[in-house]
UniProtKB/TrEMBL annotation:
Residues 770-794 are annotated as: Disordered. Its EC number is 1.4.7.1. GO terms for molecular function: 3 iron, 4 sulfur cluster binding; glutamate synthase (ferredoxin) activity; glutamate synthase (NADH) activity; metal ion binding. It comes from Perkinsus olseni (Perkinsus atlanticus). GO terms for biological process: ammonia assimilation cycle; glutamate biosynthetic process. PROSITE patterns: GATASE_TYPE_2. Keywords: 3Fe-4S, Amino-acid biosynthesis, Flavoprotein, FMN, Glutamate biosynthesis, Glutamine amidotransferase, Iron, Iron-sulfur, Metal-binding, Oxidoreductase. This is glutamate synthase (ferredoxin).
Amino acid sequence: DPSLATHLAMVHSRFSTNTFPSWSRSQPFRRLCHNGEINTLSGNKQALRSREGGLTSLLQPILPSGMSEAQKNVIRRILSPVDEGIGSDSATVDNLFEQLSIICGWPVPMAMMLLVREAWRGNTTMNEEQKAMYRYLSCLSEPWDGPAMLAFTDGDVLGATLDRNGLRPSRFMITKDGLFVLSSEVGVVDVDSAEVVQKGRLGPGRMILVDTKQGRVILDSEIKDSLSGSAPFKQFLEQAVFIDAQSTKKVTVDDDLFGSPRGKAKKGIPITLDILDVPETAVTEQLVMHGYFAEMLDMILSPMARVGQEPLGSMGHDAPLACLSRLPLSSFYYMQQLFAEATNPAIDPLREAIVMSLECPIGPQLMSCDEGCSAAGFGRPHALTCGSNPARRVVLDEPILCPWRYQQLLDLDSERDGTTFPFSVVDTTYRIEAARDLRRSGALRDFSGACALESRIHDICEEAEAAVHDGAGILILCDRRAGPSRVPVDALLAVGAVHHHLIKCRLRSQTAIIAEVGSVSSIHQMCCLLAFGADAIYPYLAYAALTRVRPTSTGAGKDSTLSELSLNKMVKNYRAATHAGILKVMSKMGISCLSSYKGAQLFQCIGLAADVKNLCFDACMSSLGGVGFRALQEDALRLHTNAYPSRPLPPLVDAETSRHVLPEMGMYHFRSVGNSSELHMNAPDVIAKIQESARKDSPVAYKEYEEWENALVDECELRGLLEICYDKCTPIPVESVETESEIVKRFCTGAVSFGAISAPTHETLAAATNSLGGRSNTGEGGEDEARFGEENETRSRIKQVASGRFGVTAAYLADADEIQIKLAQGAKPGEGGELPGYKVVGAIAEIRKSTPGVGLISPPPHHDMYSIEDVAQLISDLKHTNPTARISLKLVSKIGVGIIAAGLVKGGAGHVVISGNNGGTGAAKLTSIKHAGGPWELGLAESHQVLVLNGLRDRVVLQADGQIRTARDVVYAGLLGSDEIAMTTVPMITLGCVMMRKCHLNTCPVGIATQDPELVKKFAGQPEHLVNFLWLMAGEVRQIMARLGIKRFQDLIGRTDLLRMKSVVRENRKTAEIDLSDMLKPTWDAWRRGDSQLGRRQLEDASVTESTVAGSPESRASLAEDLDERILARARAMIEGDDRDLTVAIKDPILINNSDRTVGARLSYEIAKERGSAGLPEVHLN
């Protein structure tokens, strides 16, 4: 319409990843356009709810002075909540920005900087005035971090900014006639380069403004200088209390962090059990009562205390889910860390350390207005009129308090320069007599109803509310009264319940919650407390446990000596490891600042009942239902009884020795068979039976293995709660079922790299699967070119592309039948792969293009993928790089993975792997191995359902991955929606693995997971061993299919109507309330009623008979139209000729623009296929 004219416009075009579009999720574009993701959204929303009771200045509308308080309250109610609970992240930011800038009067750039701030704490180039401004703003609000680029306006001022990481492109140009264009890439608007007078790009945290009234562009430095001078921020911050290394310097012993003191240690007060207020005689009883065990001390706390690093482990997690475990476990074990994959990336906390921060203001947010400041010329006077009041907070440099920081916090109760922070202690224990009635109800199979634990949590919430009403600015939840007659309340339940109760009472912003608890020692537990509402943690008993750390031996033989660290030094090391671990867990969700992580509840709850979730973890994502308060109380009583047994010790037991011994519970390694030790699916007798059946090709041994392993699966895995509905089926002769030779084509090995395992092992896996018509996967370490070529029996048909891109070359990609993009790994989602330096030797270093002896850590994100659009682009790149290969994406199961899978299929993926949290690994942090990701059963069922409901299922092959061990597991995977099956642990056991779990130490005794030449010689595996085992497994799959009356595996896929929960599940106190109905929702009928029969036939072919799938016919046709095809037509003679014929020149120009997204990839494929990695001689193609 020519009559429509405007002086500014904002336009945004999105890639639709939302599988169920709705108007409520559309971007409103009232005040801003947002390109990217707000990774911190969950924490931001919780913080908004927490502050609703104290909205005075931050979101206080400018109201006429003559209005009554009642009238003002009406308007305030209309304007809240800012988060309406129905919109997208963009809508929430738009709402908040609109209220700040339009209703509350904040100048546009200051409102945006309050939400999206640049990284300032470690910035040595930033002046002190700007740092003071940012620190002041941090007292008002946590950052809303991306990766995001935001364009914003109030109608007069148009601006744009990037978040602190700067991971979204944002480029601008200014023309001679005054046109300003800012876009995510060059070429969005066609502008003659001769007309451009200035162009540039926004850097991390940078901002640019166009003031249409002034008629000029204002750059970042002028904006920040003006706003930082608009108020005396440094003076305001004099009201803050800083508790950090400097404030505690006078009392701490200045030991070197990871070694001996540099010179003579300075004077200070050493940490002792007396300082910790833990009696020497009670340490072991306290540790046992709070759930500590021997492995936790030796494998977790000891390495953290000795070397200041989180320990590594290997071979994944094969123990039961907490809701299936027979051990007494706290609610921490029911929480699994969430992580970013595909739609928003993780952050690399090592390489991007400058943007990471643990500093956090805590305590009451005082907002009463008593001072003012000017607006620095950016619009009308704004609402930043609270002066120094917001700065009257306690600023902690780190959330895990040492004894001195904790004492300094308590000392704030007294008067300090007119400011006090009174504290109140709430006891989080209850009398053991109150829980005695549980024994009888448990015997009667009564697992419902109120109990002492639940009643006490309600009392704690009421006591906390009363304390805040009485003025407590610091609320301490303390379990120190626990002992022979009192049981500690689960720390996570107490913190979560109090946090949510205070939010509902509109009191949360008036106090800080400090957890002084004994049960918290691991990084996972501390992250849980912070994510569910704690402001800081004082783990007094974890510090006391460090006195039990054994001294380490240095030297050898006669020269060996015992090295013992002081408790001071161990506490420092332990805190350093803990804080590094917290940053790592935050970074998995792409979060940089602790203030944005606190209260965000970025965990998925697996196996807790709805009443527990509703009271303690209100907004946490949950599935299954499960364990309630009574079962949790029973576990707490079991731990209490272990610590304070009612019966005396037998006469032959040394009481003094037993007083220092923690129980062996086998949480990480197999220890023993019995109710006091955890089950493991990789039990020694099971391993022996696998190897017997594989080496002897024994159906009898395999049948025994199936019986033993299925019994373990029944007690360890979700699928163990299911049974097949044979009573609904009509059996058929096994001879009418498709043969083993067809079934084994659906099998492949999971991604395991050459480097993590030895060359003979890697080649044996490939030879075995190739002989069956299946596939092996290179993992992320590349592959020796000597193994390339379709006729080579040791060639890996699946080539993986991971974030480190180790070994990824044009020749490597050109040799693939399938290219797999690893977005996450089951054993360590949100983290990159890790290969210790002593494994980076010889051919491994050469293939990975790295330096021998230097450890390799892949970054958590792909650094060219920060959105689903970037993933789609990489899929396109790889399709051009090898037009004949199927493109696969590897995901890890979590709530919501189905939506991600659908987005990837829309982006062009033809194959999606759903990996479970129990997948294997050569090296990973133990926290991730045990506490990240979800069961593949949930993720697979969700992905299949979402893809079917969106009409996408026929476009993609689904593969299940993660501790799939028996023929029954294979059938379960098929029934839940899987076309293919990936296995790694069991195949390696068939080749000789004995589960020593020393892969990360390079000391594998059977030559599998080592690069030590002498140990590699011990490898005795043969391809025939794995072939025998998989053939036996396929034969058992046929038997099950015959009982079901199903002839083809394809007809199994998605038939959840053939599964049901076992009735015996209701008789177990932990599983009685588990509900798998969502996982078993039938979608197979809707799928088969669809009209896309062509797509269905392609799916069948792709999963069984076709070696490669490049996508739909339309996608293959589009490749021929690309620019590379035109270049290739001119260069083919040069590629295919010998060196004497390389004289073809491309003289005529070929136009290229930004719609040509993948230039050169197809050309590199043809060169690599023809000439290998050597390529063309130099200077022959230009």
